[in-house]
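FW: tagging you since you asked about this chain on Friday. Here's the raw sequence from the shared folder, copied in full. Didn't touch anything.
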Amino acid sequence: MPVPSIFHDERDCLILALMGRGRLILIRGCMFSGKSERLLDRLHAACAAGRTTAAFKHACDDRYAATQIVTHNKRQADAVAIGSAAQIPNLAANADWIGIDEGQFFGDELVDVCRELVARGCEVVVSGLDLDSWGLPFGPMPALATIADEIVQTHSRCARCGATADHTQRLAPIAGLTMVGGPESYEPRCAACFQAPPAELRR
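HL: got it, structure written out here
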């Protein structure tokens, strides 16, 4: 289990960086729960604190913009679109604060990359879905949770009953495990209202 952090603001995080100690923050939850909003909040705070920042997104997520992190509320920030987490250490060689959106789309290599960046003294913030359309752990997110210094769990409101939602319901036809989409394809659901697609379609 992650140890609760005593560092609460960007000034404390900057002190950590100067001490040569990095940290990993994981923002996880269902769709429409504000994960990317929280990532951008932290990115803007890091910029305001004078940090050298770098932001990344998976290249498959081109819903709103190819080279920006864009929230469902249309907030945005420039980001480098990459197909592999292995590209991050070189691309962020001069950064001490690194943001990674849609972490679930990256392979298990993201875990080792985050370890490397934290060892380098960087603050790393990863946001992503913790559960896939079948309600099962998504990509590297569970492994990241085991090494994170801080976990931010986000929730939405169930589109059916209004209860707290922690699942993402697929509305459009299943086309594979990595299916990028917005409100036309997904909605937040509570566990009681969630209906997993047939298991044989999970591929």
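FW: The mean pLDDT is 89.
HL: agreed, and The domain at 19-157 is CATH 3.40.50.300 (Rossmann fold).
FW: great, closing this out.
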